[in-house]
Amino acid sequence: MSLSAVEGIRDRLPNGTIFVLAPDRTKDVYAISPVVDQVLGYENNQQFPKSPETLTLVFPLSFRSALTLWRKGFPNRIGYASEGRSFLLSKALNYESWKSRHLHQSTYYRELAESVLGPLPVLPPRLVLSENRMEKAKIFIDRNHLRDRRLIAINPGANYGSAKMWPSDYYVSLIRKILDTLPQAGAILFSGEQDRHVTREIMAKVDDQRLASTDGKMPLSESIGLLSFCHYLISNDSGMMHLGAALDMRGVALFGPTDPVATGPMSGKIRLLREPVRCSPCLLRYCPIDHRCMDLLTPERVWNTIREDIFALERK
Ligand code: SF4
Which residues line ligand 1 (CB under 6 A)? Predict the structure, then answer.
């Protein structure tokens, strides 16, 4: 969700150099943004060229992030005030004021940059994939005999916690319905190491050669390459949903405990489905009651919502 702000920064500073310091799990996303000059891991940030003109935008809200950047001598650190960290920042913005306006999370990043750069254009995030990454995706598709199929990308996990996850048995029913209805369809389950148990559960229950899984073994950059070959996305509220939006994919996002206003897909091509239960959005990682926000969103309802989109894929 920060990529749109980074696009705006590039528009404002066409001749500037944009470095991103990111943890391993998100480095790949910035590495394929066409507006980022270089991505550095936390470990090798000594390569970061610091000068009095360097502007350091502290995107995370944590105390630790501000402390790390202060310790490493990054100048002009701009971030939101939270966790008592304002004394570590050169300029602290009012986080509570941003939060009280109940805006999309992407505005959190944009307003942070705008506080020093002035108004930025609202630009969609872009991702540009290298030949090498596309080649690896093609190898996966060929190895799983999915070439020439209309590919449905399925992302049934969520790193945040199980509350965001649509039940795996519902995914099983929906995948069976799609594959039984459309002979030309194929489906790919995407997961990371943390949530591959869900894709393994689904693989074990769907007996169809047209279903493949990355099994949590594919690096994020290659998963994005593979996603770009898919024709439709079915996803929980997750990073993969935002990547699908950045790739301009059509699809559906299944929301439960999270807030669609704050983290909904940044593209009208991804429809949002949710059951308006009274306890949602609770923003909890694990449901303390009966997970009704997801359980009441039945596979039949999802199928009825997406069937026209899926049939349209067959006609293309
Ligand atoms: S408390 Fe309500 S909104 Fe939160 S996870 Fe449980 S059912 Fe969903």
Answer: 163, 256-257, 277, 279-280, 282, 284, 287-289, 291-293
Q: List the domains of the chain with CATH numbers.
A: 3-117 (3.40.50), 131-315 (3.40.50.2000)
Atom of ligand 1 nearest to the CA of 284: 4
Q: Are 67 and 47 in contact (CB under 8 A)?
A: no
* Concatenated DSSP letters of 237-276: SSHHHHHHHHTT--EEEEESSS-HHHH--SSTTEEEEE--
Tens digit of pLDDT per residue, the chain (316 long)?
999 999 999 999 999 999 999 888 888 899 999 999 999 877 665 667 778 889 999 999 999 999 989 988 899 999 999 999 999 999 999 999 999 999 999 999 999 999 999 999 999 898 998 888 899 999 999 999 999 999 999 999 988 889 999 999 999 999 999 999 999 999 999 999 989 999 999 999 999 999 999 999 998 889 999 999 999 999 999 999 999 999 999 999 999 999 999 999 998 899 999 999 999 999 999 999 999 999 999 999 999 999 999 999 876 6
